[in-house]
Amino acid sequence: MPRQQSVSDLVSRAQNGEPRSVARLISMVEDGSAQLREVAAALAPHTGRAQVVGLTGPPGVGKSTTTSVLVKVFRERGSRVGVLAVDPSSPFSGGALLGDRVRMQDHATDSGVFIRSMATRGHLGGLASATPQALRVLDAAGCDVVLLETVGVGQSEIEVVALADTTIVLLAPGMGDGIQAAKAGILEVADLFVVNKSDREGADQTVRDLRYMLSLGEHHKRDGSVWRAPIVKTIASKASGIDDVVAKIEEHRDWMNRSGERERRRQRRAESEIEAITLEQVRARIGDVRGEDALPELAKRVVAGEIDPFTAAAELINTVSSR
Amino acid sequence: MPRQQSVSDLVSRAQNGEPRSVARLISMVEDGSAQLREVAAALAPHTGRAQVVGLTGPPGVGKSTTTSVLVKVFRERGSRVGVLAVDPSSPFSGGALLGDRVRMQDHATDSGVFIRSMATRGHLGGLASATPQALRVLDAAGCDVVLLETVGVGQSEIEVVALADTTIVLLAPGMGDGIQAAKAGILEVADLFVVNKSDREGADQTVRDLRYMLSLGEHHKRDGSVWRAPIVKTIASKASGIDDVVAKIEEHRDWMNRSGERERRRQRRAESEIEAITLEQVRARIGDVRGEDALPELAKRVVAGEIDPFTAAAELINTVSSR
User: Fold this and answer.
1) Rg from Cα positions in chain A
2) ipTM of this predicted structure
């Protein structure tokens, strides 16, 4: 049995790109391990470098194929790459999900690529807590780029892409629901559109539909922003158009740095994260005081009509904050 | 223009059964008015008497017809009755929703009945905050029974019935989704089943299906509970079987009082409510400190890698609790 490694050991090894330590740290933040805070503290000084690129879009659009060829291109340029596939609809985590992600096997023996899938349904604190920490692990492990791919569908994909520096929305021709899905708030968050499977009939129509919808939504753009989300056509299965995608990702990164938008997004993101963790910690502390009768005692007084629930809540805040 | 009434005036008038004051107080708790806490404090000593009867079930099963005939029977017995129709899927509140609830018009001129519909979608603090307070208003207004009817569908109906002392689940024959809907956690919360529209073909089959499912789920029952949810057949549109329903409601109330289950439920409910309000207040205080740079400052340090988000959250809890 291997000796228990200290958190700082693990972080040092992860910084040197040791896959096993990277995997171990992600597991620790994902499980909400007792050492979660220690891990977070040890990671903090080594983060802030990676560009997080979110990929989202309706099922069947070719997200995982696109992710895989993007990994290939970034690797050819000498970048260290992380892949985090997040499935907010599944309760199952770990490597299993990737079993059928055949193309990812191409990179299985490449030590410059870290691939991890995470399921966040039913997760304590949900995306709010685990995903940003997993991104920090990959960041500290020296990844230049982290591809954050959403698996599955739903409103929560917006939550996922909110964690990205650059968000790619993938569409494909002939998917009636492609643009539909895009309507649901996804258009506004896209920094780059990829129309994949562009050798299929209707690709140009999809591009035109998209242009039209973007023109309608122009007033929704972030104020003062001069970035207009470009549309790139690809055939990911033939790696066609992927260089263009990478060029646009880099163009967006440069614009983000130049315009100050990168700092603004990271600031907003950190604020949301701290807020989510704060609420989660208050919830946890309430759970603790339950055992010590603080909450049951207050509830008893509310039931008896001695105090109202708002007064009880104010007392409870004092109790949980004094610990 | 009428003079501004003090909260204690309003509560006194509501206690005397003045409909306008009852309506005004519900609006105040629903809007999350600035005086919400004052209202809650003024109500507290006058609550704890009403029996809250929750009615839920799939759409089309006859919930509002059943509610209306229940009101009639309770009124005939001299009880003061409140009706709160909660639609968790709608953002529109107030009297409008009840416009088409034709049967309710029967009671429109009866001063012993208070009818109110509430929409809770997108509501600040949601059900957690507004609905229990509205129930307290009706309780303080001297209602012996408050019928809490869910409108619309979804998981949140469970949240609604969790506020009831007695929960009635309505089903109807020939609705394929009736029992299906019942599967989704609703069976466990039912204190009483009503198979409405029992003159339709398949009513006996529905009762048998229900009995079968209840026998399967027997091990899910609350421990130590000797209450077995009875099944009553009704034709609400002809007021048939309603006396049986009322008898079972009263039987359940007596059992609740005798067994101590009523106190246990009220205690649990108060605990959940205090917890929800606590989290909401922490959220609100975080919003306040944002303006004072506490949160942005912490976020800046997280972005810079000086501290981790958990440390930042701990500092934030201290900041918000010291105010």
Assistant:
1) 22
2) 0.78
